[in-house]
Amino acid sequence: NVVTIARRLLLYTIDAANFSDKMDIIFVAEMIEKFGKFVERFKDLGEVMVSMASNLMLADERVLWMAQREATACSRIVACLQKIAAYRLATAQAFSLTSPNIALEAQAVRANDWNDVTCILFQRPTPERTPSQDRQLTFKCNNTSSFSTILHKSTVVEASLQLPQSLFSQAGLPGLKDDTVYRLHLLGFRNGKFFPSTNTSLLADGGERMSVATPVIMTRIKGVSLRVLKSPINITLRRFAHGSDAVSACWNASLAGGQGGWRSEGCHILEHHNNFTTMSCNSLGNYGLLMDLSSAGQLSPSIQPLHPVIYTTSIILLLCLLTIIISYIYHHRSVRVSRKFWHMLVNLCFHISLSCGVFMGGINQTRNPSVCQA
């Protein structure tokens, strides 16, 4: 019954992009928390919960921000996703879940078998999905630098994470043997909607001026809190927006009275290359890149031109209308019509020409909402 109810709620969240009330987000967050109590008993429930959370990331950023301010809904959802990995690793050595906006990876790792590992977060269509549907977000970890077996032409790399060899040796506590088994959790989010900016100027996001311009990737070792790492973790993130004043940061859920916030302490940017930024952090957590997007737009594909037939016919129409206007102006004394009719005809041709030109030049100019709504 629990799985059935969860699947019904999943259908409800498919329309999350049209949610306009914060209570919709809060309600789903509370239900995800309740479902989380049964994840250990019903294996399929974890996949449904991840899909629900993925759908919620389609909601308007303002609605998610209000739900976070009202009831820390976003933080509660992220906490539930972390618990899914903990429950499933109790009976398995490795576990992963994919969705269009969230990827989860969990592994049971023996400390003395651990070497430098690189994990990538990428998206590519699965065989059963059509090209028009969203790509699945997926994690893949490898102890070599080669990912040629999984990366194809249709693959888009969103982020990568380099975990040092000393990660688990530092996690060891006095009296524990080297063969201690740790549980490594990885979470990847397509964007930073579940980590909304606050209005606290002391945080790295500088209030609401800074926004997350990359995917957010999380790494943690269950039961171990590493404040400062001997060898830092290098994170490469793909920027999906243009901006200025880039700041590498780590999310701290305990800031601002439990609302959470971004802190830049312990993180710094190593380099920018094309639309990727590499940063280094000396602690485990949720990593992201903040930028001032107030004067910049989203990194969207270049404007696609209209079909050539539209341009051809529009130009022909404009030439015909221009010919009519010029003819009537030049021969207005010879044309025996009333002055009222003459003005009406010229104005009609002029406004048709203007409408045609605006349509041809502006129908695909959708990057600036204020211009579209004008």
From TrEMBL:
Residues 127-297 form the GAIN-B domain. PROSITE patterns: GAIN_B. Pfam families: GAIN_ADGRA3, GPS. SMART domains: GPS. One of its GO terms (biological process) is cell surface receptor signaling pathway. The chain crosses the membrane at residues 309-330, 342-363. Keywords: Disulfide bond, Membrane, Receptor, Transmembrane, Transmembrane helix. GO terms for cellular component: external side of plasma membrane. Gene3D superfamilies: 2.60.220.50, Rhodopsin 7-helix transmembrane proteins. It is found in: Membrane. Belongs to the G-protein coupled receptor 2 family. Adhesion G-protein coupled receptor (ADGR) subfamily. This is G protein-coupled receptor 125. It comes from Nothobranchius korthausae. The lineage of its organism: Eukaryota, Metazoa, Chordata, Craniata, Vertebrata.
